[in-house]
Amino acid sequence: MPRVFRVVVLCAMIVATGFSAAGAAPHIVVDMRSGKVLSQKEAFDRWYPASLTKLMTVYTVFREIRAGRISLLSPVKVTENALSAPPSKMGYPVGTVLNFDTAIKILMVKSANDIATAIAESAGGSESAFVARMNANALALGMRDSHFVNAHGLHDDNQYTSAHDLALLAMALSKEFPAYAGYFAIPAIRSGKRVLQNHNPLLQRFDGTTGMKTGFVCAAGLNIVVTAKRNGKSLLAVVLGGPTGQERNVRAAMLLTDAFRQNSFFIRTRLDSMKPVGPVKRTPTDMRDTVCKKRSKVKAEANDEDENDKDPVFGIKQPSLDELEAKYLKPKGSNTRIVPIVLGNATGPDPFGLVQPAQDATAPNVTSFAGADSASNANWPVVEGTKSMKVPLPATRPTVGAN
């Protein structure tokens, strides 16, 4: 099928199967090797990132590690400010110490907001100082439509990004820090007796998925950044503003499937040089009425087969959202790989004196630790803690919040 015709059919199917809100939301699909933009819609429109913010949080941490100021074994300490963050959260008591390796695993799987705040305070000396580094890093990457005010992604009108900017960030994570790729592909972690599943269902349900992260607050809708590899072709997709998780997941899977089939030889648009086409929204769309106040209504409309009968494309009855899910995503299943996490073992550089007197900022560059920075290892080696500690059950995932 010719590429133009295929894209038209794909877009028509998205609209006809109940993607009324999602279809109007931004997306971008990029070939990670060539940087070519295979598909995009309103990629420069500003959007609330929700927990996709945490991708910039870990990018900033990785840069601090590369600079030698901290390591994966440096301490992350839970403060009163960190513990006060709304759910999703781990709920560790004030004074709890873990290392960055453990904290990053929690951040990428559980998306815990208290741990995001603790990371910011522990890596930056204060939350505000760390956020300033996040914004400096965003500017250096060319993320001109992004601004951060916190490290976790809970809603703030002044915290925004775009599909284009998130693609730049995801590309930077992949190219600058390939050794840490495994952090974005952990299917589940075990904290005490409780197993916490990754919020990214494509890890288990879309063949070839290699990462990255989901995000949700009512104002943003359901967002996702996902990377996948098939037959030597590596792709990156950013999908924003899903009114339901099902619609977001199906839309991402459809876009990736179509992109894997594309011949990109004649495509000239590249991520690092693309420009907006047409007007760009500088004020993010607020999805609260669509996603939260009318959530059950949107879900019902998305699966209304009677409505689908009334929306044919070229005379062909369109499949329901459930049918598309069955076509593009594998059935839901249980994870077979669970990574245990432990507290303690914070033996790395401690520049802010969290667990010992402050070290000289010019301390030796200690960035390589056996096991700890083997995050891309399929077995995810566990660094044993130095002390026993009762681990509280994490707070349940909220209806409204960042994840």
What does the model show?
- This protein has 13 helices and 12 strands.
- It is globular, with a radius of gyration of 21 Å.
- The chain has one domain (3-340): 3-Layer(aba) Sandwich (Beta-lactamase), CATH 3.40.710.
- The strands form 4 sheets. It has a 5-stranded antiparallel sheet, sandwiched between helices.
- The chain has helices at 3-16, 53-66, 80-83, 100-109, 113-124, 127-140, 163-176, 202-205, 245-261, 288-293, 295-302, 305-309, 321-328, and strands at residues 27-31, 37-41, 46-47, 75-77, 97-99, 161-162, 188-191, 194-197, 209-217, 221-230, 233-242, 339-340.
- The model is unreliable at 297-313 and 359-391 (pLDDT under 50).
- Helix 5 (113-124) crosses helix 6 and helix 9 (245-261) crosses helix 13 (321-328).
- The longest helix is centred in the middle third of the chain and has 17 residues, at 245-261.
- Strand 1 (27-31) and strand 2 (37-41) form a beta hairpin.
- With 403 residues, the protein is of the alpha+beta class.
How would you concisely characterize the structure shown here?
By secondary structure, the protein is an alpha+beta fold. The protein has helices spanning 3-16, 53-66, 80-83, 100-109, 113-124, 127-140, 163-176, 202-205, 245-261, 288-293, 295-302, 305-309, 321-328, and strands at 27-31, 37-41, 46-47, 75-77, 97-99, 161-162, 188-191, 194-197, 209-217, 221-230, 233-242, 339-340.
